[in-house]
Amino acid sequence: MEIIKATPSDNEVLTNITKLSKAYWGYSKEQMESWAEDLTITKDYIKKNEVYKLIVEKSVVGYYSYFIEENNHVKLDNLFILPEYVGKGFGKILMTDFLNKIKELKIKNITLEADPNAEKFYERFGFIKTGQIETSIKDRFLPIMELKL
Q1: SS3 of 73, please?
Q2: Cys staple from 78: which of 56, 65, 95, 145, with CB 3.0 to 4.6 Å?
Q3: Total domains present in the chain
Q4: Rounded CA gap, 25 and 32, in Å?
Q5: CB under 8 Å to 107, separation ≥6 — which residues?
Q6: Which residues, 6 or more positions from 67, have their beta carbon under 8 angstroms from its beta carbon?
Q7: Shortest CA distance to 113 belongs to which of 138, 83, 137, 133?
Q8: According to the model, what pLDDT value does residue 5 have?
Q9: In Å, what is the CA distance from 22 to each residue of 36, 80, 108, 122?
Q10: Strand, helix or coil at 38?
Q11: The pLDDT of residue 54
Q12: For residues 17 and 63, is the Cβ–Cβ distance under 8 A?
């Protein structure tokens, strides 16, 4: 197992992981189709952001991505794992790798917008909910979460 920087040619496999991981939570086919563009990882996205992939037995099974905003602040933009790897510690491995990279950069503040189903996962790492934003689904909100290092 290893975590290495993604390359632009990884865009299709990362998009597939994103879509399968999101669908794991039981969203309708119509909802998934409406999110298709938002769930697509482009070559340009990989070039412009920090994207790291998790390889297990020569296959990419998950990834995370982030970018640095103003005031020495980081936004965790994505963290996805193939459904068959959920609940087996791989999310923790990715999050630990991400947090270690951020600590090396001496960053003091991380934010993210969590899928409501993943809120408890982020809480286990010390993230706290600081707000929420409404989504395209009626009465569904994404928690805005923050971690101060």
Answers
A1: strand
A2: 65
A3: 1
A4: 11
A5: 68, 72, 73, 74, 149
A6: 48, 49, 50, 74, 75, 77
A7: 133
A8: 98
A9: 11, 8, 29, 16
A10: coil
A11: 98
A12: yes
Residue with tokens 């009626």, as numbered in its chain? 138
The pLDDT of 83-97, averaged and rounded, is 96
Residue pair 138/105 in contact by the 8 Å Cβ criterion: no
Helices (H), 1-149: 11-23, 29-34, 43-48, 90-104, 119-123
CB 111 within 8 A of CB 146: yes
Please, which residues have CB within 8 angstroms of residue 5's CB and are 6 or more apart in sequence? 50, 51, 52, 53
CATH number for position 20: 3.40.630.30
Cα–Cα–Cα angle for 98, 102, 108, nearest 5°?
A: 130
Residue 139 has pLDDT above 80, yes or no: no
pTM (2 d.p.): 0.93
Helix (H) or strand (E) holding 143: strand 141-148
- Residue 51 CB contacts under 8 Å (≥ 6 apart), including other chains: 5, 6, 10, 14, 41, 45, 63, 64, 65, 78
| Residue keyed to tokens 């390359």 | 7
